[in-house]
Predict the 3D structure of the following.
Amino acid sequence: MNAALSHGPSRHEAHVDVGDGVRLWVWDTGGDGPAIVLLHASAGSGECWDLQWPVFAEAGYRVIGYSRRGHFRSGDGDEPATTPASTDLLRLVDALGLDRCHLIGTAAGGMVATDFAVSHPQRLLSFVISSSIVGLVDDDYQAMLHRLLPPEFEQLPHDFRELGPSYRAQCPEGVARWNAMLARSGIERVPLRFANRVRWADLPRFDFPVLVLTGDADLYAPPANARLIANRIPGARLTILPDSGHSPWWEVPELYNREILSFLGSASR
């Protein structure tokens, strides 16, 4: 149902020094097209995008993915260090010579990307907020998250929280592959740190194209939450993907890729 593509574009891998003695594992398809940088979830790593990068590269984009500190093949560094993950992202795109790029951040990767967008809006061509609560600190939003995600929720199995019921019911082999990838990922071994305390008031200042996308069965970032965020961003496009939980890039990759490429095409125009 969602086996990785075995032919088509290629990519090269490297480790990039982002300071603090930390080297991040990065892969890059290269090419002259506009750059897309993919940011993975907390339960994931830079290896999670095998169903996206060949498709995006075939469409003419330079596609880049990486693992954050402590995730698959990336260094941990000094755990007490206070370097925000968005600072690592800035150092990475600088090292790769990217003046501007399209950012696609899923789940916790969307929180890192939002932090980056608040600090460095001039570096974005567009932004896809994918299945993410974006990290807002406003009291009303935090109260909603407490209702949505009680402490007991974190005790449930990762695949129950991250994959929708339709996928778990219909694709046990895919669930097994997802769990194997999760076991390699690191699962936020290094705590995420942010440069900003992002608030509602920051979102209307986004002056680049934004797509807010989530699955209709996402327990972390359900459609109601996605609508709240999209309504605060001028001109934001909202897409709810059917039969998908918190990981639409894995559960419904063909639909996910098509929606993102459609958005990127309109953003370019």
In short: The longest helix spans residues 253-268. DSSP finds ten helices and eight strands in the chain.
